## 1
Amino acid sequence: MEALTAAAGQPHPAGSIASLPSVDALIARYVGEGLVSGIVVAWQQGGAPVRFACAGEPAFHAGRPVDADSLFRIFSMTKPITGIATMMLIEDGRLALDQPLHSILPEFADARVMIDGDPARTRPAARPITIRHLLTHTAGLGYHNAGDGIASLYIRNGLTPGTRDRIRGPGELAAPGSLAEMGSRLARLPLVTDPGTRFEYSIAIDVLGLVVETVSGMPFETFLQQRLFDPLGMADTAFVVPTERLGRLTALVERRGEAWKFVDDPAHSVYARPALPSGGGGLVSSARDYARFAALLVNEGELDGKRLLKPETVRLARSNLLPDGVDHIELPLGYTWPGIGFGAAMSVQVADGEAPAGVFGWPGAAGTGCWIDPARRFFLVFMTQYWPPEINVTMRPEIIAAAYRDLSGQG
C-alpha cells in the first residue's frame, strides 16, 4: 500500500491545480479492466469550483455514462452525516459530548456486559454509555455483520439496520418498525465491552439517529432534511429513491468468480421502498450532493454564504474524540488502520499514514469514500458500486495516493 508522507508535498495556492491526471488515469483503468462498471470522482481544492471526473456506466453494458448526478448506495458514508447532525445538537446546547445516553433514552440505564463473550453470562457495565462513546464506536455495542456471538444475537432480534433485503430465518424477529423500537430491543441486550474501553465498529451510529430524533422532537430523516440537505441543496440524498429518480440509480453487483450478479437491480431496487432510516448506513446520494456536504466541512461550517455550523464545532467534529486509553482502530475484516483516531462518526488521521495527518472522512461498504484535508482545503469524493466489500481492497487507497501525487505535482 502506497505511503503518502512523501507524496503529500506542500499545498498548492488556492485554485491553482486544475486537474488530477493520476486519478483520471486510475479510474479509466479500473473501468477498462472490468473491476467496476462506473466511477465518479468529485474534488475541490483551495475554494476553486468543485470538479468531476467520470468513467464507465451505471451498470455493465448500460449503454450510457455515469455522471455527477448518478445515484450510489453510500452505506457507511451515511455515518459522518449522522455525526454532524449530532454535533449540530451539541452546538445548539441540546446535547453534550459526555452526556449519558440514559438521560435521553432511559432504557439504557442499566446496561450489562457479556462475560467472556457469553450473552447468557453478564455483569453490570462499569460506566454509562455517553454521546462521545456512540460517536466513536466505543459504546460497547456490536454489529450484525461482525461474525461473532453478539452478531447472531442482533440478527435474532431483527437488529440489522441498513440491510434491506435480508430474509428472516427461523425464530428471528422482523426488522423494527421505528428507531424507537430498534432502541428498545437493543437496550435489552448485553454489551460486548465496557463503554469507553475499546473501539468496536457497531450499531452505535444508528442509535445516534434515535438520539437526534428524540432530542429534536422530529423524525430523524426530517431533521437531516431541514438542517442539512435542504440548506446544502442536497436534492438527491435520501433513505428512499423516488420512482422518478430510479433511472439514475447505479447497479449494485456482486463478483462471483469471473461473473457479476445483481445484488440490487435499479429496476427493482429495495431502495425504492420505505425502510428504517439507518443513520449508520442507509442513504443514497450522488457525487454532486456529497461534495456539498464535504465542502461544508472543508469550509468549517459555511457554504455559499450560509453558516450551518460554527467553525469550532467542525474542528471538534474532526478532532480525535476517542476516550483516554483507546489508542487504535480495528476495522471490519480484521484490519488495523495505522495512525487513526476517531471524531464525529468518522476517522481522523492523527499521524501520516494512508493520508496525511489531519485528513478526516469515512468510506462505504460498496466502494465509496470521502477524504477531507483541512490543511490543503482539499476534498475528494469517490463513488462506485461493487460487492462484496473485500474485493478491490486497494482501489480507495490507490485513488487517494494518486490524488496527493497530483496535488504535489508528482503525477
Note: The radius of gyration is 20 Å.
## 2
Amino acid sequence: MIAFAGTYFDGRNSAAHEVTVNVLGDVISIRGEGLHQDFKIAGCNFEPALGSTCRTLYTPNGGRLDTKDHRAFSVLERKKGSGRGFRIVHLLESHWKAALVSVAVAVLAVVATSIYGIPLLAEKVAFTLPDEVLQVLGKEALASADRHFFRPSELDVSRRQNIESLVEGFVATTGAQSPRLLVFRKTPSGPNAFALPGGTVVLTDELISFAEGNEEIVGVVAHELAHLERRHAVRTVLQGAGVFLMVSLLVGDVASITSTAGTLPALLLESRYSRGFEEEADLRASQWMRSAGYGVKPMIAFLTRIGEKNSFAEGPEFLSTHPATEKRIAYLRKLENIED
C-alpha cells in the first residue's frame, strides 16, 4: 500500500482540504475531514513534474490533488504506467549534474555529426543529384554573379578560342573532367577562376593577363576541373546547409529550414573550399598535368606569384584567393618531389 499526505480541491469551490491518500491495488482513497472519496487510478490524470514543485493529480470528478511527496507520486505513476518520459525530464531537472552531462552529450553528438556525419552525407547526396539540377544551380549562381560582380569579358575572340582549344586538348589527352561551359568574365577583384555545379568553369580576364604562359592557365583550369569531378562546390554548400539545418532543427526554427533551399545559389557564391577539398583538387590536377607533360611546376609558379601579389580586393568568397595559398604551395612542392 502507498500512503502520503496532500491537499485536495474538490472542483466545486476554492476550499483546500488537507488529506491522506492511500493507494491499494488500482484504487486511490482520499481521506480528510468530512471527505471520503475513492477513484480508479486509470481514470486519473497526472500532471508532468516541473522541477521541485508539487505534483498534481486530477480526479475523474474534476478534483485536484497536490502533494510534495515526489517519491510516492512516482510510484503511483508507475502503477498507471504513464509518465516515463516526464520522469526522465524531471530527473534531469532535479539533478543538475545529470543535466550538464546530457547537454555535453548532445553537444558532442552535434559536433561529431557535423565533422563526420554531414560531410559523408553531403558527398552521397552530391553524387546522386541529377545533372539537370546541378546545371540549374550553377546557372542561377552565375546569373547572380553577373548581376553583382562581373562585367563582360574584353578578351579577343581569337584568345578565347585559343584557350578553349587548349582545354579541349588537355581533356582529350588526360581524360580529365570536361567542362560543359568555359566562361570568360571581367572583374575588378583580380585574377581568379572557379567552378560551378553542372560543369561551368569561369576564367577572369585578369587571370589570363596574370598568367605567364598557357601552361599556367591549363594548371588553373585543371584545378577547377578537379573540383567539378569531385563536386566540391555543391558538397561545400550541402555541408554548410547541413550544419545550419541541424541547428535550426534543435532550436525549432522551421521558417529557416524551409527557406534554405532557395538560398543555395547565394550560398554557392559565399562558400569557400576546405583545405581538404583544395588538396584533393590539387592532387587530381597534378596527376592530369603530369599526364599532359606539363608537370606540377606551372601550378606552383602561378600560386607563388598570386601569394606575392596579394592584391585581391574585397568581394565575395569565390573572388578571393584560395584559402591558405602558402599551404597549397607546400603541398604541391611535395607532389613535385614525388614527381622528381
Note: The two ends are 86 Å apart (CA to CA).
## 3
Amino acid sequence: MSFLRSILVSSPLIVLSTVVLGTLSILASLVDKSGRTQHRLARLWGKILLAVSFIRVRAEGLEKLDPSGTYVFVANHGSLMDIPALLKTLRYEFRFFAKKGLFKIPFLGTHLRRAGHLPVDRSSARASLKSMTEGAHIIAEKQISVLLVPEGARVSEEEGTREYKEGAAYIAM
C-alpha cells in the first residue's frame, strides 16, 4: 500500500512542488539578490516534501540556540530527505555547501547559485579551502549561517559514517 501511495500521491506532488517552488525561487531571485526569499521558498518546499511523503521530523535542542546568532551547522547526509528535514527544522537563514556538479544541473544549479549557496570543488584541497573561506566570509560579513556535510557526500546506512573533513572546524574558527 505504501508503494502505491508513493507512486500515485507522493511522487507526483514532490515533482509538482519542486517545479512550482523552483520556478518561483528563480523568479524571486530577479528581484531579491540577497537570497532571503529563495530560502523562505526552500523552507516551504522542504515542509511540503516531508508532508506529502508522510515523514515527521523531530528536532531537539533548538531552543538553546540564540535566535540572533550565526552558526556553522553540521549534519550527516544519509537520505534524500535530509535537506528538506533541515530546511524545515532549522529556523535560521542559512546557505549550504553543495558539490560543484549540482551547480551544473539546469534549474537546480540556477536556484543554488542565485540563492547564494556555495559550490565545493572536491577535486583538490586548495579548491575546497577556497570554498570554506567563502563560507567564513558569508558568516562574518552577511551574518548568515552555513550548513556543511562533513563527510563530503550522502552516506548509505550500510557504509556507516565516513571520515569527517575539517571544513566545518575551519569555518567556525
Note: DSSP finds six helices and four strands in the chain.
